[in-house]
Amino acid sequence: MSINIERFELPEWYDDNLMTLLVVNQHSIYLYWEMCFEQWKILDGNQLVVNLYELNSDGVDPGNRLVRRHTLPPFTGDWYFHNLQPGRRYQAEICCQQNDRQLSIMKSNIVAVPPAGPYQGLREVEWRSVDGIGDMGTPAKAPAETMKELVNTMSFYMGIK
């Protein structure tokens, strides 16, 4: 039985709740999300907001700082954040705005934006000797077999006697 793969198409909608944050470069990240149809029905008429947080060094509250907040147009599924600080960690969250309160709906994964350039600081180097390593950096050990033993073994495997 053969399957014609040209007839298959990727679905436009998976009807699932998911949210993924991806690094574009050291100054930009991309946020993608999808909400199931039931979630959209529940949120119908409510204003959605996306918040971007810069995480502190250990990634737990308190200390996470809100760096961006955007009101989302209806049925938006992605967003770019530009002009971010390199070398920081970020997490996004979608909230439902109700009066003066925000109710969290979904949170993204945490991403680490790369630094702006290579590390320029000084590092202390500590050299250590390792037992069993010779001057050239290879293990110092004697061959286990003589040439005659090696040839006899090879001919056995090759079917030659």
Shape: flat
Helix content: 10-25%
CATH class of the domain at 5-112: Mainly Beta
- N-to-C span: 51 Å
**What CATH architecture of the domain at 5-112 would you give?**
Sandwich
Number of helices: 2
Order of helices and strands: EEHEEEEEEH
- Computed over alpha carbons, the radius of gyration is 29 Å
Mean pLDDT: 80
Quickly describe the structure.
The chain has 2 helices and 8 strands; from the N terminus they run E-E-H-E-E-E-E-E-E-H. With 161 residues, the protein is mostly beta strands.
Describe the structure.
The chain starts with 17 loop residues before the first strand and ends with a helix. The protein contains two helices and eight strands. The model has no long low-confidence stretch (mean pLDDT 80). It has 161 residues and is mostly beta strands. It has a domain at 5-112: Sandwich (Immunoglobulin-like). Strands 3, 4, 6, 7 and 8 form a five-stranded antiparallel β-sheet that branches. The radius of gyration is 29 Å and the shape is flat. This is DUF4912 domain-containing protein. InterPro entries: DUF4912. Pfam families: DUF4912.
Task: Pick out its properties.
12% helix; mainly beta; Immunoglobulin-like; DUF4912; five-stranded antiparallel β-sheet; 2 helices; 161 residues
Could you outline the blueprint of secondary structure elements for this entry?
Layout (H helix, E strand, L loop, with lengths): L17 E8 L2 E7 L2 H7 L3 E8 L10 E7 L6 E4 L7 E10 L2 E7 L3 E2 L34 H12 L3
Antiparallel strand pairs: 1-2, 2-5, 3-4, 3-6, 6-7, 6-8
Protein name: DUF4912 domain-containing protein
InterPro entries: DUF4912
